[in-house]
Amino acid sequence: MIYLDNAATTPISPVVARHLQSAYVDIFGNSSSSHALGKQAEKTLEQARESIASLLGFPKEKIFFSSGATESANIIIQGYAKHLLRTNSPRKEILISEMEHPAVYTTALSLENAGFTMRIIPNGKNGVIDQQALESMLSGHTGIVAIMRVNNETGTIQPIRELSQLVKEKDPGILFMTDIVQAIGKIPLDIAPESVDAWFISGHKIGAPKGTGAFYINSKFRLQPVLFGGGHEGGYRPGTTNVSGAHLLSISIQDSIEHLEKHAQHARTLQYHLVSELTKNRIEFKRTIEAEHSSPFIFSIIVPGQKSADTIQKLSNQEICISSRSACSSNSHSKSRILESLNMPTELIDSVLRISFSAENTAEEVETFAKALGSIVQNRSAKSTVGQPEKEKSFLERPAPHHS
Ligand code: PLP
Questions:
Q1: Pairing of strands 298-302, 286-287
Q2: What is the DSSP letter of 323?
Q3: Mind listing the pLDDT tens digit for each residue in 9-62?
Q4: Catalytic hit among 133, 328, 363, 382
Q5: Atom of ligand 1 nearest to the CA of 68
Q6: Of 337, 356, 347, 368, the residue nearest 302 (C-alpha)
Q7: What is the tens place of the pLDDT at every residue in 147-200?
Q8: Strand 198-202 to strand 175-179: parallel, antiparallel, or no bridges (unpaired)?
Q9: Can you give the pTM of this predicted structure?
Q10: Residue 393 pLDDT more than 50?
Q11: Is 119 helix (H, G, I), strand (E, B) or coil?
Q12: 4 — phi, psi (to 5°)?
């Protein structure tokens, strides 16, 4: 099996795998219990929190463990909206980038029922936020600004430090939050406690088990709880804490941050290799986002005339896993909101393929994939040219195009 869909989820990383058994078998105490085993679990939990805090440079008292990114985004956005309502604040607008994951988009949208307005900050070129547009949207009514560091469908990178500083200079009372799920351990995060008030991460995108995650909230911003139960994790995420998961999450973060440069270089090399292999296999394609604005781990391309659903199925039949968009939307028949935001014509949206790498992928896997894609494209092209005039015999008859 060749797995090139690491933006959807990653396999357990080799370093996490080495700790898996001991994390789940040896650390089984309830971190809230007052006996020795409970204390031991609590110590492990606090060590994990401390490790994440020092790796990211944020205060550990305000980092909380959760089951992943969706839960974290809900706790932050709904929790702060509840606080704004409770305090009769005039801040009734939630500004989000056009590219936010549904974890942010649908949570913000749901708050329209509670009297909030979700406003979309338009993309500039390559999906990067238009800073002038953002600035002009900020006002005394702005409660939250949410902009992700790396988009999961296209790989677009946002300059979070600049954007958060812009928001904070205009009004420090606005909560600036960022989804760093596809960025942590992959590219520099570009976040600082002075300007970023909240972030969240998900373990299963960086080699930790599913159901693990964490978020940060600046102590200047009060969140009302949206989940009720015991007072675990600051009262924000009640329920017995997943100590083993938190421990493994901290191991995966440490490992991926320590090897960030090496892994990013590996992903970059795989991308270059893939570009030359696609060309070698005479596949016409176009990048969705230019490389300089995109994460090296996510390679989104348009293969004109080739329906992505069909291509993905044919590749899957050959045990090659890629996708076209986020896994949680891939069964939906609606068009990708993210790709639409790039003003891409419908027929091109239908032809987008997302190839996403991990540190474990190899050049041979990339070659096998490009070859398989090449034969799918050529088969289709051969079928569609039957009976057509010679001059319409598609680009396959012409010299292979050059792509940068
Ligand atoms: N944000 C981004 C950018 C993602 O890629 C994902 C994963 O699908 C999420 C949020 C949601 O993550 P989780 O599965 O942990 O809820």
A1: antiparallel
A2: B
A3: 999 999 999 999 999 999 999 999 999 999 999 999 999 999 999 999 999 999
A4: 328
A5: 15
A6: 347
A7: 999 999 999 999 999 999 999 999 999 999 999 999 999 999 999 999 999 999
A8: parallel
A9: 0.92
A10: no
A11: strand
A12: -125, 45
Rg (CA), the chain: 23
Closest ligand 1 atom number to CA of residue 182:
3
The H-or-E segment that residue 330 falls in is none
Band (403; pLDDT cuts 50, 70, 90)? very low
Pull the structure tokens for residue 399: 């010299």
What DSSP state is assigned to residue 113? G
**Could you write out the DSSP letters of every residue in 190-225?**
---TTT--EEEEEGGGTTSPTT-EEEEE-TTS----
Strand arrangement of the beta sheet that strand 298-302 belongs to: 286-287, 298-302, 352-356
Q: CA-CA distances (angstroms) from residue 77 to 144, 352, 379?
A: 8, 31, 48
188 near 161, Cβ under 8 Å?
no
Query: Quick one: pLDDT band at residue 76, thresholds 50, 70, 90?
Result: very high
Residue 378 identity (one-letter amino acid): Q
Question: Distance from the CA of 70 to the center of ligand 1, in angstroms?
Answer: 6
The CB of 324 under 6 Å from ligand 1? The reply is: no
Asked if 355 and 322 count as a contact pair (C-beta separation under 8 A), the reply is yes
Q: Is the dihedral of CA 243, 249, 255, 258 positive or negative?
A: negative
Q: Identify which of 312, 55, 309 has the alpha carbon closest to the alpha carbon of residue 184.
A: 55
Six-digit token pair at 123? 């993309």
Q: Report the Cα 34 to chain-centroid distance in Å.
A: 38
CA 133 to ligand 1 center in whole angstroms:
26
What is the C-alpha to C-alpha distance for residues 53 and 42, in angstroms, rounded to an integer?
16
- What is the set of domains in the chain, with CATH numbers? 2-6+260-384 (3.90.1150.10), 14-257 (3.40.640.10)
Query: Could you give the CA distance from residue 95 to residue 9 in angstroms, rounded to a whole number?
Result: 27
Q: What is the pLDDT of residue 402?
A: 35
How far is it, in rounded angstroms, from Cα 153 to Cα 182? 10
**Ligand 1 in contact with 182 (CB < 6 A)?**
yes
Contact in structure between 84 and 92 (CB atoms under 8 Å): yes
β-partners of residue 353 are 301
